[in-house]
Structures are given as structure tokens and as C-alpha cells.
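Per your request, structure below.
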């Protein structure tokens, strides 16, 4: 069972303010300092997006899973989301981005770590209402938070509908079905309470308490599926810190639970906690950074490495990395190379790293994926051992035989495809 959670996973992430928006933030801070002890002004809560804005967010989660009342598994995970606003019209901003999340699982029947990167695109208006392409699994939580469209004072309340999208395809019990279960969309009322403002790290933040319960029975039948969910019910409490001067979510914490009753009578129980926060980073100057990384690697005697600019950042490709066939063990030669690469990566400590492993096309796709994940982890773990990054700054991902550099028709070409790519991430 992979990580389930009503956590947003797709929230707007870290902001680099322009001069005007920075000025607006300072004005907001001055007003709050004048008030100090209490809420002196009503607040008109609104999202504010402009074309060219970029965001990033970092979050952590812990989750427990029970089956029929007995502990089954624990999951812990991190997620990073990066967004850009390429266009804004008709009162809505178009957001495009990518979420990368890593989940570690421990339990009686499993112990594994998995990483996945997912693309997200949707539109949002100033009150928080979403417009999403039909059939899209992401964003998993929609229209939360939604604002009332009027000024609110401390202890004011309002309500608005929200939606969760449940993708249950990773629950093992459903693997007995010939066809995967479709996405389940659940809409429910959400209760909001404005709890006033707080100055945190020099920012004036509006505190919003959010609560909702969800309940949904399904219409699946035994003619359609051998095993299917009959009932889903759960609850969530979230504390959101909103930066109204910038029109952005600053951070949040939430506690949630979800029970899923199956047609077999089995009951899965999920409960956990998620925290996330906005992070700021300078926008990457890709051409300049690509040039610098190439020069720095060449100065270390690594002229043969391929360095290129990509959507996510600057990619360093370790082509023909010396992994023995069907192995993820690093040779002394590769460790020496990674020590030199690590010295270059240390020059950009604020940028997270994505380490992706690849294999030649041999064995089953599942074997390829697992081996590529192990190879990525070998490289990432060695970079951690060298002190290049903190654990939360490195994401592992295995892509198996996807994106080959050469046909898998000779041993030399297969060696080229047994590679690892290290990306210095934009977010």
C-alpha cells in the first residue's frame, strides 16, 4: 500500500517576490506591528497569482495503516512541488508544475522505498476554486482552502464545498481484479474558522482552521470487480498559515483518518499527519549554471560527463557508469568520480538533487525498475556519506529501461544505458 493521504501534495510552492509584492508584504507587516495585541482590521482573504510567478513547497508525512484492527504498515514520506504561472486570464491563473514524492514503507509484509514524479496542471481563481481537466487524478485535494469573498474578522466562520480524488490502485486487495478501479471523486462540505493573525519569521500570517468529514458509498458490483470498496469515510483537521499580503499559502499541518470498507468485509484504516511549508529560492539561471557546472567538472578532470539544461534543472549524466550487470554496487573508480562530482555539487547547497537510475533492457520491467532504484540509491547514499546534501535534499528514482541512450543490441550500448543522472533541481 503506498502512501494515502488527503494532504494536498500539490500546493503552490516557494515564492521569489517581485519588488511590488515585496513592498505589499512589508506594508502588511507594518499594519500588523501597529496592531500587535489583536486583530485591528478585517481581512479579505485572496490568492494572488501573476504570470511569471514561481513557487516551491516542501512537506513531510507520517502514516499508519491497519487492516481489520491490526497494525499492517507504517509509511513516512517527503514531497516537493514546484510551480510556475505561465498564464492568467478570466480571473483564473493557470498553474503548471511537478510533484516529486518519496515514500518509505515498513510492515510485516513489506519494507521498501519508492519515489515518483508527477506532472500537475490546473487553474485557480482568487477565492481558491479549481478548474481541472476531466479525469485528472491530481490535484488530489481541490477547492481547499476556499475563501468567502468578503472581509473576515477573528472568529468568523464560513463553509464551502471541497473535493478529494481517491486513487486506490495501490491497495493490494484490488490486484485480484482484472481491471484497475477508477478514480473516486468525493465532494463534501468544509468548515472554516479565521483564528486571527500571527507574526512568524518577519511575516504576518493569517491563521485558518479547516475541518471536514467525508462519507461516500460506491456503486461498484461483483459483476464488475472481484474486490471493491463499499464505503469510504474519514475526517481531516488542518491549520493553515496564509500570507495574505502575498496571496500565498505559507505552511500548514494536518491530521487525518480514512476508513475503507471492502466488499470482502475487510476494513483498511489509514491515519497520519502531514506538515508542509513554503520555501524560497532564487530562480535558476539555467544557461549560466550549466556553463558553471561544465567548467567546474572540467577543472576536476571530468570533461567526459554530459551536462545539459532540462525543465527540472541541470542534469549531470554519468553515462557508462561502471555497474556490473544485474548489480548496484559502485566500483572504486566510480566512487572516486563521485567524490569529484560531489565537490562540485557542494557549491550549490540550496538546490535539491534528483538521482535517477537506468538499466539496459534485460529482464522483466519490474526487475529493471527495482535494479534502477537500487542504482540510484547507491549513488545518492554515497553523496550523503560524502556530506554533499542532507537526506531530505536528495530524491531517488528508478526508471528501469526507459529513456535509453542507445539500442540494447551490443554490450557497449547496454553499458551506455546502465547509467545514473544527477539533476540539480530548480526547486
Amino acid at each position: 500500500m503506498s502512501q494515502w493521504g488527503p494532504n494536498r501534495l500539490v500546493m503552490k510552492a516557494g515564492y521569489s517576490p517581485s519588488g511590488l509584492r515585496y513592498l505589499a508584504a512589508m506594508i502588511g507587516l507594518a499594519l500588523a506591528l501597529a496592531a500587535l495585541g489583536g486583530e485591528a482590521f478585517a481581512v479579505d482573504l485572496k490568492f494572488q497569482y501573476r504570470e511569471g510567478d514561481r513557487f516551491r513547497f516542501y512537506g513531510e508525512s507520517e502514516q499508519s495503516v491497519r487492516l481489520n484492527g491490526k497494525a499492517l504498515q507504517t509509511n513516512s514520506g517527503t514531497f516537493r512541488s514546484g510551480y510556475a504561472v505561465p498564464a492568467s486570464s478570466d480571473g483564473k491563473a493557470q498553474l503548471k508544475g511537478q510533484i516529486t514524492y518519496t515514500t518509505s514503507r515498513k510492515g510485516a509484509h513489506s519494507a521498501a522505498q519508492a519515489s515518483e514524479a508527477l506532472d500537475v496542471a490546473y487553474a485557480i481563481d482568487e477565492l481558491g476554486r479549481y478548474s481541472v481537466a476531466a479525469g485528472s487524478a491530481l490535484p488530489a485535494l481541490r477547492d481547499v482552502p476556499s475563501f468567502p469573498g468578503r472581509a473576515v474578522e477573528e472568529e468568523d466562520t464560513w463553509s464551502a464545498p471541497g473535493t478529494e480524488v481517491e486513487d486506490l490502485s495501490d491497495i493490494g486487495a484490488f490486484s485480484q481484479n482484472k481491471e484497475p478501479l477508477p478514480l473516486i471523486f468525493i465532494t463534501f462540505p468544509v468548515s472554516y474558522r479565521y483564528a486571527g493573525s500571527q507574526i512568524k519569521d518577519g511575516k504576518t500570517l493569517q491563521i485558518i482552521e479547516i475541518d471536514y468529514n467525508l462519507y461516500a458509498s460506491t456503486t461498484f458490483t461483483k459483476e464488475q470487480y472481484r474486490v471493491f470498496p463499499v464505503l469510504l469515510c474519514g475526517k481531516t483537521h488542518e491549520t493553515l498559515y496564509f500570507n495574505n499580503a502575498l496571496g500565498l499559502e505559507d505552511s500548514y499541518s494536518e491530521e487525518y483518518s480514512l476508513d475503507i470498507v471492502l466488499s470482502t468485509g475487510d476494513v483498511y484504516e489509514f491515519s497520519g499527519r502531514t506538515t508542509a511549508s513554503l520555501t524560497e529560492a532564487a530562480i535558476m539561471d539555467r544557461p549560466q549554471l550549466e556553463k558553471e557546472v561544465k567548467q567546474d567538472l572540467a577543472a576536476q578532470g571530468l570533461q567526459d560527463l554530459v551536462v545539459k539544461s532540462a525543465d527540472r534543472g541541470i542534469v549531470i549524466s554519468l553515462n557508462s557508469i561502471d555497474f556490473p550487470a544485474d548489480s548496484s554496487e559502485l566500483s572504486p573508480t566510480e566512487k572516486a568520480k563521485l567524490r569529484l562530482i560531489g565537490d562540485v555539487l557542494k557549491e550549490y547547497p540550496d538546490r535539491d538533487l534528483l538521482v535517477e537510475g537506468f538499466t539496459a533492457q534485460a529482464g522483466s520491467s519490474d526487475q529493471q525498475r527495482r535494479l534502477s532504484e537500487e542504482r540510484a540509491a547507491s549513488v545518492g547514499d554515497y553523496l550523503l556519506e560524502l556530506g554533499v546534501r542532507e537526506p531530505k535534499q536528495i530524491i531517488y528514482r528508478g526508471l528501469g529501461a526507459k529513456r535509453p541512450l542507445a539500442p540494447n543490441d551490443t554490450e557497449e550500448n547496454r553499458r551506455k544505458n546502465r547509467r545514473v543522472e544527477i539533476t540539480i533541481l530548480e526547486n
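The chain has two domains: 19-278, 286-425.

Regards,
D.
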